[in-house]
Amino acid sequence: MDSRPNILIVEKEEVEVNRLKTILGGLYNIDIIKTTTEAITKVSENKDKYSIIIVSLNMPVLNGYLFCYSLKKDINVRSIPVIITGTIVDFNKTEPVEGLRIGEYDRLINPFDNKIVIDLLEINIEKKKMLERLNSRDIIEKTTGLFNFEYFKEALNIEIMKANKLNTSLNCLNIVVWEPEVKENLLAVIKNTHRYYDVIAFHQNRILLLLPRTTQREGELIANRFNSVIYGLNTRIFFYEPNKTDVMEFKSDVLGYDDVPTLR
Question: Any idea what the CATH number is for the domain that residue 65 is in?
């Protein structure tokens, strides 16, 4: 029996399909689909099949962002990691607005190094396994509908590992809310407009938002977005940059239990 993970590649360009098949063909079972609408149907009908999805940003009808957004609205397939491919010019046209709106995903910038592709898939598959392992327990905090602290800690470890291996940065927002009405307002904003792009957890009157693959400036933009619509938030940004930020100090700051000062 073939135990290799199944990968779905959603790409219309034959050259790019062949390149990915050359890199990944010996390591994974690969399905190819050339339209995002067909891919959504395929994933929905085979919700347990794919370990990861690679989709081109420049797809017709539903581009890579809209494809990712559609998947994250479906609770049955939300945990499947998505990697969006495109040139830096393609991404710069739409990020950070679209990229941060649709959710947690990874970029694969074309042209890309073969090792980067393999590393990115290995890390994302490990993250999916972690989620599946925790899913055998209750990972949702009942009163808020957000992830619990156990899940957040494991997700944070994997994102730090990914940042170090791929040399990408990440942010964590720590929002302390004591007043019940402020908490309810914040939860409403998160569930209505921010639910799909982050790992969001609730723990001891804190809401923690993990923002993978974001610059410090992008983290500040998101924090300011919350602060501008809800009065009275106590928000702090924690920024991680490989080779510049101490891992243990960063984790200690993020996972600490004390009140945090207002955003700098």
Answer: 3.40.50.2300
pLDDT (tens digit per residue) in 187-230: 888 776 654 456 788 888 889 998 887 889 988 988 888 888 88
241 found inside a domain: yes
Distance of alpha carbon 61 from alpha carbon 96, whole angstroms = 21
For residue 39, what pLDDT is reported? 94
Task: With residue 158 as reference, give the H or E element that holds it.
Answer: helix 149-166
Q: Confidence class of residue 137 from pLDDT cuts 50, 70 and 90?
A: low
Q: Which long-range contacts (CB under 8 A, 24 or more apart) does 178-184 make?
A: 178/205, 179/232, 182/230, 182/231, 182/232, 182/233
On whether residue 144 sits in a domain, the answer given is no
Instruction: Report the 10 Å Cβ neighbour count for 160.
Output: 19
In the chain, what percentage of residues exceed pLDDT 90?
32
Range of the domain at 208: 149-255
Domain count of the chain?
A: 2
Count Cβ atoms below 10 Å from residue 168 Cβ, excluding itself.
19
Q: Are 90 and 16 in the same domain?
A: yes
Which pTM does this prediction carry?
0.71
Question: Could you give the 3-state DSSP secondary structure of residue 262?
Answer: coil
Q: What's the rounded Cα separation, in Å, for the pair 216 and 211? A: 10
Does residue 157 share a domain with residue 123? Answer: no
Average pLDDT along the chain: 83
